[in-house]
Write a structure and sequence with these properties.
InterPro entries: NAD(P)-bd_dom, NAD(P)-bd_dom_sf, Semialdehyde_DH_NAD-bd. The chain is α/β, with parallel strands linked by helices. It is about 35% helix and about 15% strand. Helix 5 packs across helix 6. The two termini are about 25 Å apart.
Length: about 230
Amino acid sequence: MKNNNLKTAIILGATGLVGGLVLQLLLEDDRYEKVIVFSRRSCGVKHAKLEEYIVDLFNLEVSSGRFKADVVFCCVGTTKAKTPDQDMYTKVDYGIPVMAAQMCKRSNINTFIVVSALGAHVNSSVFYSRLKGDMERDVLAQKIENTFLLQPSLIAGNREEKRLGESLAKWVMRVINPLLIGKLKKYQSIEPETIARAMVWLDNNIYKENRIPSDKIKSIANLNDRN
């Protein structure tokens, strides 16, 4: 007998570090019957629950007919080293999440979970933080019932591409993490698996805050929602 409570999820950014882990979790989770991935290249995964569409994420609206789900996990993002042009950076880190949120609103998708960044603020003097702040503001403006903006600190873990500056920063953070306690705890680096687990937990539980800083992401990931 079919369980009518099973969910369909959409993932944007499934070829990335966090998005790939979210995909793995959802494919293993019996609460989800279908996982739809929109990506610019194949995630290289084969699974009975997976539907994959290779699309131009900058023109995601052309896929509106397939944009039907219970939840959208938005894990897209780039870096200054990978995308030095600020206009292109804006199209990725602002344009894709905001367009996805607008499509959620039009398709009556009630849960939108997006990876932002610690320090995001519309009035920040730092381009990256200000862009993330603009993204958060315009995502929240869609008034999707369950909107969660995860604000991780430096994300640990190994990426496909080599980033010397980021690797050095991760090494430094491993050294100073134990010193960041109390109000500074949110600045500790965070594992991508932790972010992915928190995102899935948020889709299946009640949480009242929209913006979730790095230390609270860790706390959420450690919760056991299978009592």
